[in-house]
Amino acid sequence: MTPPSERPFPTSPGILLGLGLGGFFDGIVLHQILQWHHMVTSAGYPANTLENLELNTMLDGLFHAATYIITASGLLVLWHQARKPHFWWSSKLLFATMLMGFGLFNLVEGVVDHHVLGLHHVNETVPRDQWIYWDIGFLLWGAAMLLVGFVLLRQGLREPQPGPSV
């Protein structure tokens, strides 16, 4: 039997789940419910014609398909890891890693789509000169989630591990 002190907590499932849930939050809340932007509304395809809206809706769907695959991958890896006898289960550490994944999603998506590629911005319903504030807020939110998740993970890893459940 593996001693409790040698049972690692697998971080990758939580990070994958957080990445997927971050993508779902972005797509469902910002794209669909609030309709602040779509995938390429700032890249020459504003949703002001039926043709552009159809293109953006299709690209939003592909984005959702990708987030579904990432989330399903996280569940698959979690299931695989949880079946191992040396698995260290911790709700706190799973939450911490999911928070890190959500934060990573915001940072990567925010930098790449909003700033590098200019595909869209967080809130395109406000005047154009205010878009940057929403984009920066999105990055700060992501950085805060990543930092809080990292701190929770470090704290949780320092706590004594419970003995194996029988």
Automatic annotation (TrEMBL):
Keyword field contains Transmembrane: yes
InterPro entries according to UniProt: DUF2243_membrane
TM segment ranges: 12-34, 62-81, 93-112, 132-153
Top-level taxon in the UniProt lineage: Bacteria
Keyword presence, Transmembrane: yes
Keywords recorded for this protein, A-Z: Membrane, Transmembrane, Transmembrane helix
Record's protein name: DUF2243 domain-containing protein
Native source organism of the sequence: Phyllobacterium pellucidum
